[in-house]
Design brief:
alpha+beta, about 35% helix, about 110 residues
Length: about 110
């Protein structure tokens, strides 16, 4: 992990009231998010992205687009069970916490 990545995890850990060793990288395909959390993510994303995009461009974003943007970095916070979704936008990274109980690990389908 690069020094910049270490610095990011250190800052994220402080912000999330934990330590870097309690933040675990997750893959997008490994998680499912509740409808309520998706609605919150959409509202937060529109607020953040509204400062960087035109109103027309923002209106054209689907929920799927927003999830893709905020899933560039995903972390499970072992301390509180939450998921942290981060978007790299320009020179900044914006993170949105998803509380425990509003996300889960995607179980693979069982063969019958």
């Amino acid at each position: 992990m690069s020094n910049t990545a270490h610095e990011f995890l250190d800052e994220l850990a402080v912000n999330q009231h934990t330590t870097p060793d309690k933040l675990h990288t997750m893959e997008t395909g490994d998680i499912v998010i509740s409808v309520e959390a998706l609605a919150g993510l959409r509202a937060t994303a529109r607020s953040v992205l509204g400062r960087m995009m035109s109103a027309d461009s923002l209106e054209g974003l689907t929920l799927s687009d927003i999830v893709k943007i905020f899933a560039s970095r995903l972390y499970w916070n072992e301390t509180d069970g939450g998921l942290i979704m981060c978007a790299e936008l320009g020179a900044r990274t914006f993170c949105v916490p998803i509380p425990a109980g509003h996300w889960n690990v995607n179980a693979p389908e069982r063969l019958h």
